[in-house]
Amino acid sequence: MKRMLCILLSALAFFCLFSGCSKDKENETEKENHLSEEVDPDWPDGSIEDLERFDIDAYDRETYMVPVWNDGGIASAETVFVLAEKDGSVEPIQLLYPAKQIISVRNYGLGIRYEEGKDYKLTADGRLQILTGGSIKAMPYDSFYLDVYDPSSSANMPEIYGTGAQIYSEAIYENGEHRQGMTQWQVCVTYRHSALWSGSVPQDQSVYLKNTSAILNEDDENALKVACIGDSISQGWTASGYGNVDLAPHMPPYIELFISQLQEQYPNKRITLKNYSSAGKTSRWPLYEKDGIVNFETMIADAPDLIVIAFGMNDGGSIQPEDYGNNIQTLIDMINQKCPDSEIVLISSMLPNQEIKANWGDHQPLCNWQPSYKSVLYRITEAGRDKGIGIAFADVLSVYQHIVKTKRFADITSNNTNHPNDYMHRVYAQVLLQTIGCI
């Protein structure tokens, strides 16, 4: 509660504009919302005692659901990857915002707190400096960047240029062993800053989701039935609390975060989730593959009130934007035909590692068509509204693209390939909540 009170107080110093998508401006969700350069640099007053309450040592949904684009001057448990240079040194690490004061640095699981001055320090330009000889360990340069790609090993991915490779390491519980993947070398930084988000701000589109809004806000016992269909990210990979990961701090995947936050905001409503997502799938799966067709038909037969569709990460390697759009449109048409009262949210995916190729098939770059899908989903959303369909577009990609202007991909991934870590799962949930008007 103290956290939220502080955020409300800080909001007096600045504001963000949220509005629905406009039909006559196709790039509305892509626009840059430049607000102002700084929040009040005197809030908080900067003393360690006053800021200590913002340190968290366990998963805290309330804190995690404070949006990165409007955090009130306190960035909480922001993940960074610690990588050594060839000589063993660690370069200062840039954060999402230039830090004014570091409140805490903890391991990925949040159970270990590191010591300022011994393990790390804040540089004059607001970056995190990991100190030599401290307790924070860096991944060796030669473990991350490999001179030669080894096709016999699944633990590396070929780089796009040259003959080298990068590590592939997934966080997973397998064969009785907890593997931390890339998160083993990530730390969580909570810090005070005085900068404001200058990227695209997700739009509140609740006006286009009238049935969902009515169910949530009406004083009755009607439950809100939510369904989700997508790829491994929507299935849960690789949030620390996902079933076959099971690592501290045990944070649920984004779709479960979304549901639990809705339940918190609407305690008198029963909100249910059925997740039909499956790892490795594309938008073709529910249309052309037998198990996918059955899965999709089962979802529609349940007549959900709100359906989240989140394909794109796996499509991007080989499915051109026109074909991707046709697939998504066909799914929408099938939903609208069989359960016209169901409303839909389309999600644009974050991007995979743009420096590597697949270690399977013909080794296509992992990032190919994905950036183009954003405008495709926007146009589909607008066309659906013209037909009277309740539909919204949760533009995760635009937020991701602003984040990686200052942060590295390794800071926000669990496997260095295509899966988000806890930080990016939080962003997915935040964008989805804002899209339906619940932040």
From TrEMBL:
Q: Return one GO MF term.
A: phosphatidylcholine lysophospholipase activity
Leader peptide range in chain numbering: 1-24
Q: Where are the transmembrane segments?
A: none
Entry protein name: SGNH/GDSL hydrolase family protein
Domain SGNH hydrolase-type esterase, which positions? 228-426
Q: Which CDD domains match?
A: SGNH_hydrolase (cd00229)
Gene3D superfamilies assigned? SGNH hydrolase (3.40.50.1110)
Q: By its UniProt entry, which Pfam families does this protein fall under?
A: Lipase_GDSL_2 (PF13472)
In its UniProt entry, the species of origin is given as Candidatus Borkfalkia avistercoris
Which UniProt keywords are listed? Hydrolase, Signal
